[in-house]
C-alpha cells in the first residue's frame, strides 16, 4: 500500500515523460553548481568551471529538466588528441529523479547527437567505491553489447598526493556505428 506521502506521486513512466533533455546554456551555471553539490560524492568545481561546461562544452554536455527544475546534468568533452572519444567528466542525477534510467538516457542523448558522429568510445573515470557509477556505466554498455576495459588513470599517491581516491578509467566501445 502506498503511504500517504506516496499517493499521487509520479510513476516511472510519468517521470520519463516529464523530463526534457537539452544542451546546457550559460544561464545554467549556478544551477549546475547547486546540483553537483547535492550529488555526493561528486567533486565540486567553481561556478566559473560549470559556466565553461555550459558554454564551450555545451555540444557534449546535457541538462535534464523536470517542471523547470534542473534534475540531471552530464559534463563531457572530446579530448583534443582523441577525436573519436567522448570523455564523460561528471554525471549527476538529483535524488528525486534517480532509478528511472535518466543517467543512461542522458548518455544516449550525447552519443546520438550530430556532434558525436565520429565518437567510437566513451571514456570516464570512476573511484573504486562509487557503486552507483560503475553500475550505471556497465549497464549502459551491457544493454548495447559494447566491450569495456578498465585501468587506473590517476593514482591516489602519484597524482593526488594522497588527498583523493584512485580514479579508474572505464572505456566503453568501439561503437562500430557502420555495423548498426
Ligand atoms: C550514478 C547516478 C548518476 C545514477 O543515476 P540514475 O538516473 O539513477 O541511473 P540510471 O537509472 O540511468 O541507471 C541506473 C543503472 O545503474 C545501476 N545503479 C544505480 N544506482 C546503483 C547503486 N547504488 N549501486 C549499483 N548499481 C546502481 C542500476 O542498477 C541501473 O542499472 P539497470 O538499469 O541495469 O538496473 C546517480 O545515482 C547520481 O547522481 N549519483 C551521485 C553522483 C555520482 O556518483 N555520479 C556518478 C559519477 S560521475
From TrEMBL:
Residues 19-167 form the N-acetyltransferase domain. Its EC number is 2.3.1.178. It comes from Alloalcanivorax marinus. It is an enzyme of class 2 (transferase). Keywords: Acyltransferase, Transferase. The gene is ectA. Belongs to the acetyltransferase family. EctA subfamily. This is L-2,4-diaminobutyric acid acetyltransferase. InterPro entries: Acyl_CoA_acyltransferase, Ectoine_EctA, GNAT_dom.
